[in-house]
Amino acid sequence: MKRVLTTCPYCGVGCNLYLVVGDDGRLVGVEPSVGHPVSRGQLCIKGWNAFHFVNHPDRLTHPLIRRGGRLVPASWDEALALVAGRMREIQDKHGPDSVAVFSSAKTTNEENYLAMKLTRAVFKTNNVDHCARLCHASTVAGLAATFGSGAMTNSIACVEQADLFFVIGSNTTEQHPIIGARIIQVCQNGGKLMVADNRKIRLARLADLHLRHRNGTDVALLNAMMHVIISEGLTDEEFIASRTERYEDLERLVAHYPPARAARITGLTPEEIADAARLFASADHAMIIYAMGITQHTHGVDNVRSCANLAMLTGNIGRPGTGVNPLRGQNNVQGACDMGALPDVYSGYQRVTDDAARAKFQRAWGVRGLPRDVGITSTAAIDAAAAGDLKALYVIGENPTLSHPDIRHVRTALQNLEFLAVQDIFQTTTADLADVVLPACSFAEKDGTFTSTERRVQRVRRAVSPIGESRPDWHIICEIASRAGYSGMQYDSPDAVMEEIAALTPSYGGISYSRLDGPGLQWPCPAADHQGTPVLHVGKFARGQGVFRPADYRPPAELPDDDYPFVLTTGRNYFHFHTGTMTRRSRLLHREERFPYVEISPEDARSLGIRDQQWIHVGTRRGEVRVQARVTDTAMKGVLFMPFHYVEAAANLLTINALDPEAEIPEFKVCAARVRSTP
Amino acid sequence: MKSLTLQQVQDFLRSLTSDYDVQAPIALPDGTRVLGRLDEGPLAIPGGRVDSKPTSPFFPQLDRIFAYRRGSIAMQQPVEKPLLVVGLTAEDADALTFIDEFFAAEYRDDVYFNKRDRSAVIVVSGRCGKDGGFLKIAGGDCDLEFVCDGERYVLVPYTEAGKRLAHRAPEGDEVSSIADLQAESDALPDDDRQVLERASRLLQEDRVPEEFWAEIADRCIACTACNLLCPTCTCFEVFDWTRGEQIERYRLWDSCQLAGFMREASGHNPMGEEHVRTRRRIHHKLAADRTRWGRISCSLCGRCDDVCPSGIGIKAVTREIVRRFGIEKENGPET
Questions:
Q1: Same domain flag for A108 and A142
Q2: B298: Cβ–Cβ under 8 A, 6 or more apart, which residues?
């Protein structure tokens, strides 16, 4: 028996835990890390069950190649040669930008760095992206524009220094449970809690003020709150004067959002909005906490900017216990962004359009001709595949046939490709469409680092041997690079990759494995003697002055009408993670939520004659699925909520492929739907 | 009675590894203390209760019950080397006696006794608690006790197995009595115990209303850690995995805080509401088990209080119960 300290593979909180390895070399349990500053001996149910899927009989154990229409076992040599060969062949015929790579927020920093290096240095295209496109692309764009850095400004430890939480579009106790529970504890001891979310989530039940505004009306709500704060003289004038610019723009715009107007848009009362404004402005230390409810909109970037405006207006930034705190969903979605698995930046958000940055990476990688044009996003890549412009795709640990909007469109697009390679730990519905399937190791079988939502870079450690013939992602990516004729991606181990990352990435400059034996380091950590940065923008914003970028309210792309009278909003539940490939293979987690379901309000259920647990149909203009009705007052009248974990009734069959114009994030949170209770 | 230095204790335990699968408190890299083998990390005898579930050597989180292949079943066999579990506290040992009785009652649980039979348990107590605290002396419930006087560990055997173990210990200083340490143990405050007893009576008298449990339930995020780490929680889920021609049956720690725990095949769920589940956890330990087993099945180890992310461990909740519903004690029914 042995125990190996590692980082949880589920959400972005970054809890550390020990994997317990039995005498037969298989995982038999989990023990939380008591000394870790975030976990402190505590885990959520996913963490307690994080070992379970690793040894599941469904694990992919050898490479597969499509022959005669069927995926059949093949050798690694064959499979790797085919991936490298086909990608090269297609590029020779159709040009470098005819291929794209989807990297993964589930894999390590080292692997994301290598995936973007493979894409850029070997395949000479900037067509690399990952699932941040579906979750926090709006944050990366919105906060970079206002503060100069697109990440959570504060630390998880700041929760205990705050005296007010404004939780907007985050079901924190279910999606970032350890943070949610800490908020509960602070509020038990006098902290104030304001929740803006029309679902009556757990935090809403405990809130001092619960705002049930209509989906997609956040900008109107936030603008009206700022209108009240300004008109009642509750701003932090000194902060505005000394730390920010373009305040006049905000003042001018929010003048058009008196609470009465916002009330008509949001469905709230003017009094609720004014109360929220006063409560927020009354706090010395107010923390804004948000997640997908803010970002997954056609106006996601506007939502993010509006949150940033509210924080700056009241001086709630750059101090412990304050800040604009986007909670990142995946274990390493922060890291995947940091590593440049994005179409416009290298690691550390160095722009591909910047000649100096390009020259630096060319020198370091020993290549010439790094592409200067920004690549396509993963949402645009699906459209390009459907249009026949994208010919080949290498998908690492992503499952777009369940996670992207309008999956009928996604399936058509992927089937339209000349070549699709999928690297994963289980046979996903995306892998079902692949020409080559590469079996990867899970988090428990490899070394590396993840970066949590609070920018904490921490170790992932190998606890058990690879299952079957599976190989670590970093190893597979490097093999493909070699076979594509590039000799600059040969590493003995992930820590050698981290050395290269540190040398090329200013915010990771001081990070090395020898410094990560403890609880990790929070970037920016520019030098070997730098202790990391728990709170950003202290004294000065990353871009110098914070800039107010006010936004006007724009309605969602598709609103209810006579044919589709409901708003459908999608998300996750507590027990499952994303496309369910791991959690639905974890006994307790799957047992808790076995069936696809839709939350519907008691009023709507009554008027449609629908009983709790009845199987009903939910449809949109894209399709229809059969799900169990969950009649609950969590749902507001007129709004349906569906989790997107279930392959047998995929919520993303229903969602709309409408994108934010800047971040190209889909509007998973609003589309028009109808309900049919007949068989 | 022999008394050994910490170094001697360590050497002694190491000498026992030829005959026993010794599992003792080990300090992991971040300071977490668990029951582990001596080669897993530095031995950490002082420090009080281990962070892990103390009964896990006998009842691990995941355990394979049998494998079936082509018409034959390979049942889990008794462990080859008997277990020697070192470092339980008096509270942990008390909990172990409870689950011994539980697993032996009516249907004898082979998977548990495959590990528990022939095992030996050593409690650590005295002046070696966390931050210099005094650990209650068990005075039984185990085979052997190491009672620390601040520097040395006095070996107090209670069973034949304990005597044989003590006999194998190196010759240390002889100590004639631990009376002073026993007096110190007896003088430990028992406030938590009194609160627990009072809460137990209030529950038995049905004086805690549903609204209270709804309030507590609102704060529960269903992490299940209170159950998973509780030394007297014994519930498990059973599942099968099919690997080629082999079917493997496992059991896995379960939790009554989950909706699926008692959900019936029809979809009906007698514990379908959160507040019912929250009440059950505490009611079971303090009232139901008292009726069935004649005792409260919380030994006050404190793990659920430490591990609960939202502050509703059993000590916290029972304090709240007594504060809010025990005020009639002077003139109302005895609480």
A1: no
A2: B196, B232, B285, B286, B314
